[in-house]
Amino acid sequence: MRGGENVRSVISAATLLGEDSTIIRDRSFQLLLLANFSPPLGSALISPLLDTLVGPFAVSETEIGLLMTAFTAPSIVLIPLVGVLADRVGRKLVMIGGLLCFGIGGVAIAFTTDFQVALALRLLQGIGFAGLTPIIVTSIGDLYRGGAEATAQGVRFATSGFTLMTFPLLGGTLAAIAWQYPFFLYALTFPTAVLIALFFEEPTSEDTRQGSADTDLGDLLEFVSRPRVASVLVGRAIPNFLYTAFLTYNSFVVVQLIGGSPGEAGLLITAASVFHTASATQAGRITALFDSRLYPLLGANLSMGAGFAVVGLAGSLPVALIGSAGVGLGFGTSLSLYRSVITGFTVESLRGSVVSAGSALGRVGATVAPIVMGVAVASTEPLIGFDAAVRSTVVAAALLCGIGGTACLLVARWSPAVEPTSG
C-alpha cells in the first residue's frame, strides 16, 4: 500500500514540477524548505498585528511602524557580511545561528511591553534573517545545476508564498485571543534548527571554504563589477521594489480610489500570492522551454510592470484583481529565475557572498520603495489632487521599473559571459 502511495506522490510531483521533481525527495532540500518557512514571517506575521500592538506597547500608530523598520534595516548591512562568513565557515553553521536568533527574538517579544526592548528584539530577528534566506538560496545553488536548480529555487519561493497566504491569517486568529500568542509561532524555528544540526549535510567542502578564506574583498568587488554580474544584481532588486510598492499602495487604490473595503484590498494580496506561488513552482519548466533565461525574465518583467499599472489605473475591483495577478505572476517567475542565474554563474568560493549581495540589493529596493513612492505622491498631490497623484505615481513606477528591468537584462545579454567554475 505504501509503495503505491509513493508512486502516486512521485507522479503527482512530476505533473506539477516536471522532470526535475525528484529533488523534493532529497533530504537536504527538504530541510532547506523547512528552514525557508521562517524568514517570511518576519514581516508577514507582524504587519497585520501592528494596530493591535499599539495599546500593549503604549505608542502611537506612527511609532508602532518602527517594528517593521527595525526588522528590515539590519539585513541591508549584514547580508553581504553573512555571505562572506558562510563562504568561510559553511552554510550549516550560519543557518543554525540565523534560526536561533530569529526564533529567540520573535518569541521573547511576547514577554515584554517595553517598546524599546521590543525594537531590540526585532533587530535580533533582522540579524537572524540575514543568515537565512540568502544562505538557503546559496545552498540550493551548491546542491543543483541547470533546470533542477531553477526548479528548486522556484519551489523554495513557492513555500514563501504559502507562508504568506496562511500564517498571517493564523496570527490574526491567535491575536484575537491574546496579542502575545502570534509571537509563539516563531518558536517553530527551534526544532528546525535542531533538525538542520542533526541531518543537514554541508554542501560546501573544506577545500572550498579554505579557498573562500583565501579570497579577499578585492576578488569579490572585481567579480560583482563585471557588467553581466552587476546588471543581473541590479535587475534582481527591481522586482523587490515593485512588489513592495504594490503591497504599500494597493489598499489606497482599492479603499480610497475605488471605494472598496480593507477586506477587498486583502483580496489583491491573496491573488498576487497565489499567482506568485504557482509561477514559482514552474520555474524549472519555464527555463526548459527557452534557450536563454532572458526571454522568460523579460516576460516576467513585463507582467509585473503591466500588472502594477493596471492596478494603478483600475476603476473596479475585478480589474485591480487582474492587475494583481500579473504582479504576482511576474514576481514569482522573476525572482526564482534571477536567483538561479546568480547562483549559476558565480564561482563556488564566492557564491554565498554574491548571492548575499543580490539579496542586500533586494532589501534596499524593498526599503526605499515606500519612501520614493511617498515623496512622489506628496510632491504631486498639491498640483493634481490625491487620487491622480496616487494613480500617476503607480503608473510611473511601473513604467520606470519595466524600462529599468529590461535595460538590465539587455546589458546582461550583451555583456561578456561569466563562466561558472567549481571554485
From TrEMBL:
UniProt-annotated location(s): Cell membrane
Family annotation (Pfam families): MFS_1
Cellular component terms per the entry's GO annotation: plasma membrane
GO molecular function, one term: transmembrane transporter activity
Annotated TM spans: 31-50, 65-86, 93-111, 123-144, 156-177, 183-200, 294-314, 320-342, 354-377, 389-412
Alphabetical UniProt keywords: Cell membrane, Membrane, Transmembrane, Transmembrane helix, Transport
All residue ranges annotated as the Major facilitator superfamily (MFS) profile domain in the record: 28-416
Membrane topology qualifier: Multi-pass membrane protein
UniProt KW Membrane keyword: yes
Protein name: Predicted arabinose efflux permease, MFS family
